[in-house]
Inverse folding.
């Protein structure tokens, strides 16, 4: 009897768990979501179908949808800007860099100051 009791409980639990799944197998109504513009009519629904219409202004008809208009990605760099950024990121590890480590690290400090001055000057001209 003690050996049959766990089997009976397991069978009962399996039977209770499978009951909601049978109810979910039945298909429900088909939902059709439609975006309409201006004074366009909402299409009629067929039997077993629900039609949901979202109405937008007429001037939105041929525009890119609102969620796709804004881009969260940073603007792409041009080819020359990308090369300059790569050169700057690796400058400390090459000869002529202004760093306390690496080969000839102390020799590039003056050149770095001149590069920063030119970059600042270009930035000021671009803001004008």
């Amino acid at each position: 009897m003690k050996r049959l009791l766990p089997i009976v409980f397991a069978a009962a639990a399996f039977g209770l768990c499978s009951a909601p799944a049978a109810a979910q197998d039945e298909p429900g109504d088909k939902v059709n979501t439609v975006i309409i513009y201006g004074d366009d009519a909402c299409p009629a629904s067929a039997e077993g179908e629900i039609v949901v219409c979202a109405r937008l202004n007429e001037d939105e008809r041929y525009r890119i949808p609102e969620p796709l208009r804004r881009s969260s990605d940073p603007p792409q760099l041009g080819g020359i800007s990308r090369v300059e950024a790569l050169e700057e990121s690796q400058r400390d590890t090459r000869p002529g860099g202004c760093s306390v480590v690496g080969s000839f690290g102390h020799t590039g400090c003056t050149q770095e100051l001149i590069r920063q001055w030119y970059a600042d000057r270009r930035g000021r001209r671009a803001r004008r």
About this structure: Residues 79-127 form one domain. The chain has two domains: 4-67, 79-127.
